[in-house]
Design brief:
Elements lengths: L9 H9 L3 E2 L2 E2 L14 H10 L16 H4 L7 E7 L2 E6 L2 E5 L33 E4 L9 H7 L6 E4 L3 H6 L7 E4 L4 E3 L6 E5 L19 E5 L4 E4 L8 H9 L4 E5 L13 H11 L4 E5 L13 H9 L29 H9 L21
Parallel strand pairs: 5-6, 6-7, 7-8, 12-13, 13-14
Antiparallel strand pairs: 1-2, 3-4, 4-5, 9-10, 10-11, 11-12
Helix pairs in contact: 7-8
Length: 373
């Protein structure tokens, strides 16, 4: 098996061609936003990437805890979230367990030797996950669709829910077709043994695992709704007015998970960053906010802790219920009253060693399909 996919065919290809977002063989954002950097940004960005000293990788592994003891106990409120790093979360919603964008690999790359390397291990192996009811894959970039993790999850006999066309990867890697559900935006699926709905919704991003494969599959956010609670998972996205429509059609949400890392003003239309994430939260109608897509891989030019520090600076001004759990720490949003700045334990070490090891490891610098993913 290969980390690359086969070309779509049959019913999958017919459904892709029928999508309102599919034109001339490619998926496109509703707004028409593409991948071009902002005018005049290319050379300043490359200068910053190559020559400006940055704390892009922490000098030591970030703190984490094992969630196993907590997972063995039922949730008290019916809604619990465990951030396992980057965009991987275990969500427990009204008795249903959902795993998002599972990535356990050491590197997010087609190679085991080069490419962005994980800051610290996932606090629990896949083999020790509790029984899962669903796995959600937002899109097919390496830091969201991880070949070794998918192959290991096959043994868990869990169904996969993903964006239109991404099932081609899963099927090629050995996931039985009966366990793959591909969704276009606004399409929903009901879990077979629970009153639980998964709905794919708009996002503003792109796809592809190689240059020739770009935008051949769809990218999505996902709304998850049980009898009592609802959650929103952004996948990767830039700020889009479609979030107002998502709020009207699929909200309100008790828990909102938005990406805040791997952001740069030069590509601000396809990633959020902290400031735009808070604006997106407002468009979505609010809810407890759990930031993701930070603190795990070096995928941009900003300091590794910049997203977290920016959020704790500006979120209180907007009366945001901000959740910043330590990696692996299960939390029930309605029981969280404040933010513990646990990542700053590494900042203390960096005062003694100001230069992080990102600049010392050339293997970190390999671009994976695009400078932002």
């Amino acid at each position: 098996m290969s980390p690359f996919r086969r070309q779509p065919h049959g019913l999958r290809w017919e459904r892709m061609q029928a999508s309102p977002r599919f034109f001339d063989g490619f998926f496109r954002n509703t707004s028409g936003v593409g991948l071009r950097l902002k005018k005049g940004a290319t050379f300043p960005m490359m200068r910053e990437f190559l020559f400006r000293g940055r704390r892009r990788v922490p000098v030591a592994p970030l703190p984490s805890v094992s969630p196993l003891d907590a997972w063995a106990r039922p949730t008290e409120t019916g809604l619990r979230a465990t951030w396992l790093g980057h965009s991987t979360l275990l969500l427990e919603i009204d008795g249903v367990r959902v795993l998002t964008d599972p990535v356990w690999s050491q590197r997010v790359s087609p190679s085991r030797l080069i490419g962005p390397k994980r800051f610290q291990p996932v606090p629990v192996p896949i083999s020790q996950l509790p029984p899962l009811d669903a796995v959600i894959i937002s899109h097919d970039h390496y830091d969201h669709l991880d070949y070794p993790s998918i192959v290991e999850l096959i043994r868990h006999e869990v169904p996969f829910y993903t964006s239109l066309g991404v099932g081609g990867h899963l099927e090629a890697w050995g996931v039985p077709p009966a366990r793959i559900t591909e969704l276009d935006w606004w399409e929903s699926a009901e879990l077979p043994n629970a009153a639980f709905r998964i709905t794919a919704a708009p996002s503003q991003h792109f796809s592809g695992r190689a240059a020739a494969d770009r935008n051949r599959t769809l990218w999505s956010s996902f709304a998850l709704r049980g009898p009592r609670h609802a959650a929103f998972f952004s996948g990767d996205t830039g700020l889009t007015a479609e979030y107002e429509l998502i709020a009207r059609r699929l909200g309100p949400f008790d828990l909102v998970m938005l990406e805040v890392g791997a952001f740069h003003p030069a590509w601000g239309h396809i990633h959020l960053g902290p400031d735009n994430a808070l604006e997106a939260l407002k468009l979505l109608g609010g809810g407890s906010f759990l930031p993701v897509h930070w603190g795990t891989f070096d995928l941009a030019i900003h300091d590794w802790d910049q997203p977290a520090e920016r959020l704790v600076e500006i979120a209180p001004r907007l009366d945001t219920h901000l959740l910043m759990p330590m990696i692996g720490a299960p939390i029930e949003p309605s029981r969280v009253e404040g933010v513990e700045t646990w990542w700053r334990t590494i900042s203390v070490l960096e005062r003694a060693e100001p230069l992080g090891h990102a600049e010392k490891d050339p293997a970190q610098l390999m671009p994976i399909g695009d400078p932002v993913d």
